[in-house]
Amino acid sequence: MAAIIKANMEHCQLLSEIGKISFIESHGHSAPPEDINTYVKEKYKEELFRAEITDAKNIYHIIYYHEQPAGYSKIIFNAAHPDIAKRNVTKMERLYLLKEFYSLKLGYDLLKFNIELSRTNKQSGMWLYVWKENPRAVSFYKKNGFVITGSHDFKLTETHSNPNHQMFLRY
């Protein structure tokens, strides 16, 4: 059975651990190992999560499966994007699921939860970036109504960027 809870300060270490593992599982082959390791060390520090959790604009949720943490999401309401004409849109900044839970459709559950939360908060859509070379993720978002609306270079390190699609779901 799956359960989704709002993350708080007590979850920062867990968010850090899930972030590191799931990023390496899904993007570990997208760049040289030293670039991946540098990115993970810089972006998934527990203290960064502590700072983000204290900022009310960052909304984190953790999904559990039979009381085991399986993944997490981060959304930001009213995160305008210059290429999206709609107002009051949500940015899906992260939707991470540990690989061992892929077959259970928990990513779908977490996405739908966040879409409903976004709608409840009077948002008119949701946008995100997804790595172009992750066909599983691109297909997942397309299947759930997102359309490609642009592109974005995701800067991994000073020497490496990954090409991303910008995707949008209009409510």
State the separation between the terminal residues, measured CA to CA.
28 Å
Largest sheet: 7 strands, mixed
Domain module count:
1
Average per-residue pLDDT, rounded, comes to 96
Label the CATH architecture.
3-Layer(aba) Sandwich
Beta-strand share of residues: 35-45%
Cα gyration radius (Å): 15 Å
What is the CATH class designation?
Alpha Beta
In CATH, the topology is named: Aminopeptidase
Secondary-structure element pattern, one letter each: EHHHEEEHEHEE
CATH homolog superfamily: Gcn5-related N-acetyltransferase (GNAT)
Gross geometry: globular
Q: Pairing-aware structural class of the strands and helices? A: alpha+beta
Spans with pLDDT under 50 lasting ≥5 residues? none
User: Strands of the biggest beta sheet: in what spatial order?
Assistant: 1-2-3-4-5-7-6
- Please tally the helical runs, counting DSSP H or I stretches of 4 or more residues: 5
Q: Count the strands?
A: 7
Helix content bin = 25-40%
Itemize the secondary structure elements and their pairings.
Layout lengths: L1 E5 L5 H16 L5 H11 L2 H9 L3 E8 L2 E9 L12 E9 L8 H15 L4 E7 L3 H9 L3 E11 L2 E11 L1
Parallel strand pairs: 4-5
Antiparallel strand pairs: 1-2, 2-3, 3-4, 5-7, 6-7
Helix pairs in contact: 1-3
